[in-house]
Q: What sequence folds into this?
């Protein structure tokens, strides 16, 4: 993922910040100020293989997290890099997810 | 608990569901053949919620996409997970409300099993029968099965106010949540003015913890 793509994703309405990590959880780029949120985004791709193995339904490609009065978090997991997106709680996560995928696959 | 899960699985797009608490699958409609795998997956989801809690984030819903399937997990009361396997294209508000509504029943059963609930009031004692029971008196003695306790007009008026208040928070779905809450309340308490506060507390559990719940309780107390 190149800086131009990250810029496009950041510009999507409702997006607060984005974080890009490598397969080892190292931060490659981030516009999310909260270090703990970045740590969580780096942690998540490490635990999804347990779920994949348990269910046997294939690879977890995306994780969305919601909570009361909290920013939404969406993490796109790829073998190469993972992208975490922090977004406003009022927006539709499904719509936002589609918009981000369009940028990633363009 | 399985019957509660079966109601959730009846929702369009939901294939399987389970309830997980403290390292144990309490009930499940997932195939028995993969019991261990489901337990491991639930444990991993629990770790995700624990990690969030550790960084001061209180997210309580997680949606994992696997191909054309979704694994949706809801955390209730920081205690137990309701985990669903669904199609990727589903009616999210419907599923969410269905699970939220079911969570009230799950919480009740869970707490009863843990024997932490308040004692359920015993049925009203039957009046002592007259010393001499004639056949005529026998006919009017209370029957073995107690009749349902009627709700007074005053209690009903407050209940209606609670329902209207709940609609302000949950919209039209509040009607169903309210009915479930009343069912639970009537099972646990005598429907009197004194226990209306318990009804308010049951309904408040359906709202977001914190300001929303506190706000509801403050307004509900205004009707008492």
A:
């Amino acid at each position: 993922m190149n800086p131009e793509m990250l810029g496009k994703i950041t510009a999507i309405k409702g997006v607060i910040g984005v974080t890009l990590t490598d397969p080892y959880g190292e931060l490659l780029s981030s516009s999310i100020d909260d270090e703990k949120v970045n740590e969580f985004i780096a942690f998540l791709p490490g635990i999804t293989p347990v779920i994949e193995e348990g269910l046997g339904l294939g690879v977890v490609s995306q994780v969305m997290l919601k909570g009361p009065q909290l920013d939404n978090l969406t993490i796109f997991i790829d073998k190469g890099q993972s992208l975490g997106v922090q977004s406003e709680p009022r927006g539709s996560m499904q719509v936002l997810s589609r918009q981000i995928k369009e940028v990633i696959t363009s | 608990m399985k019957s509660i899960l079966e109601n959730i699985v009846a929702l369009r797009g939901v294939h399987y569901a389970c309830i997980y608490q403290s390292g144990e699958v309490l009930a499940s409609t997932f195939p028995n053949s993969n019991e261990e795998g489901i337990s491991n997956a639930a444990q991993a989801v629990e770790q995700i919620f624990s990690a969030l809690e550790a960084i001061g984030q209180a997210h309580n819903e997680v949606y994992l996409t696997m191909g054309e399937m979704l694994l949706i997990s809801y955390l209730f009361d920081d205690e137990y997970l309701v985990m669903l396997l669904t199609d990727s294209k589903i009616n999210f508000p419907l599923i969410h409300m269905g699970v939220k509504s079911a969570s009230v029943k799950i919480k009740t059963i869970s707490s009863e099993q843990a024997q932490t609930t308040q004692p359920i009031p015993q049925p009203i004692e039957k009046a002592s029968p007259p010393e001499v029971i004639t056949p005529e008196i026998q006919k009017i003695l209370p029957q073995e099965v107690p009749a349902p306790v009627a709700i007074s007009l005053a209690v009903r008026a407050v209940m209606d106010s609670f329902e209207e208040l709940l609609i302000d928070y949950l919209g039209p779905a509040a009607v169903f949540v309210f009915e479930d809450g009343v069912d639970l309340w009537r099972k646990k308490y005598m429907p009197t003015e004194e226990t209306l506060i318990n009804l308010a507390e049951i309904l408040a559990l359906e709202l977001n913890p914190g300001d929303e719940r506190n706000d509801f309780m403050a307004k509900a107390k205004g009707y008492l």
Notes: Confidence is low (pLDDT under 50) at residues 125-131, 140-146 of chain B.
